[in-house]
Amino acid sequence: MTDSVVSDPSDSPADSRAARSRVPFSLLDLAQVGPGETVAQSLAHSLRMAQFADRTGYRRIWYAEHHNMPAIASAAPAVLVAHMAAHTSRIRLGAGGVMLPNHSPLAIAEQFGTLAELHPGRIDLGLGRAPGGDQATFTALRRTPAAAENFPGDVVELQRYFAGSSVHGVVATPGAGTGVPLYILGSSLFGAQLAAALGLPYAFASHFAPQALERAVELYVRDFRPAPLPDGGQTEPYVMAAATVIADDDADRAYEQLRSAKLQRIKFLFNRGRHLSDADAAALLDGPQGAQVDEMLRLAAVGTPDDVLGRLDRFAERIGADELILAPLAGDREVWFGTVEKLAPSV
Question: Which family does it belong to (predicted)?
Answer without folding.
Answer: To bacterial alkanal monooxygenase alpha and beta chains.
